[in-house]
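Quick one, T. Sequence first:
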Amino acid sequence: MNIVPATRPADACEQPLRVAFFSDAFPERNGTGAYYHDLLPQLAARLDSLAMFQPSDRPPRPLLSIAMPGDPNQRLEGPPLRRIGRHMGELQPDVVVVVTPGLYGLLGAWYARRRRLPLVAAFHTDFERLARLYWPPLARWLVNLVVGTANRLICRRASRVLINNAGLTDAVRAYGADRVQVVGTPLPLEFLERPRRAIPGRLARVCFAGRLAPEKNVDLVIEAARDLPAVEFVIGGEGPLRQALETQAAGLANVRFTGWLDRSALIDLIDSSSLLLLPSRFETFGSIALEAMARGRPALVSTAAGIHDWPSLRPGLVPFTPGESLADCLRSLQAYGPGRWELLERQCRAAAADLNGATIAEWHKLLQAVAVTERREPA
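Structure tokens:
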């Protein structure tokens, strides 16, 4: 809950802007947590100050901490009200941004309403779709009732609802969103700034990185490894399916599991590979594919991922239609020569860097616009 001060001189054409973000996602624990972990340091350079209010692994632990069904690594935690109130008093925000429909997100929406502040909501995860994978009918109904109610409350009160692919428009409209805006996805600066390793000139190693969970379709990666024994498959990440996947891969000398990877180790994994695999059943966006592109690596990505909605990224994406053979797709890439891989490397890096810059600028512009047009005096 640290307040980040300005790191740039004020622009006479812009008003000083203080922004409070509320998220139920742990930093870097999932796609939503990673999004704001990457966005805020770059955005802070354009603002007067900002703060992120979210759960933390650091003590003291909250009184309420519940493991999410299907994945104990994901938790719903109660926010420390007094501490947040003290930090909000110090920050005195001009705009509140809510990025999840949990207890932290609802607290942010309540604070904005109480202080008559502009509220911006961001919709990153289709929880109702996830519920169909993780929970039986009764639990699914309960989860959808609770999460749906929270989403409706937040979306109806928000002056803008942000999504990172246009395919989510109908979902947020159904929750009552009035003004919907598509925004890009940022990158960790380390992925752009760390010295690069040249892409291999042939398809000898591919990697997957992400949660080992039902929606990721990691079993397809292991099936492809069985069909392509000359290609090394490295699977990075943790999740509820790890043990089952390791059992499925037993006896395959070309499959290796790394466990959870920090950002530095993830870059090492991507740099040592020719291609990233993301054959998910669905992805709101697919940030790991953008991160691979930032390292100059193309990504084979399910057509169910929202990243395909960004035309500027298509040179670095190999579309994969769920239901087709992943091994056959990889065989077609084995025909590429060194020159083709080098061209892909250049195209990937340029496209990823351009989207990151445009995303930071767009966030700053929309926060300024909301602060100017929606600000009201406290009651």
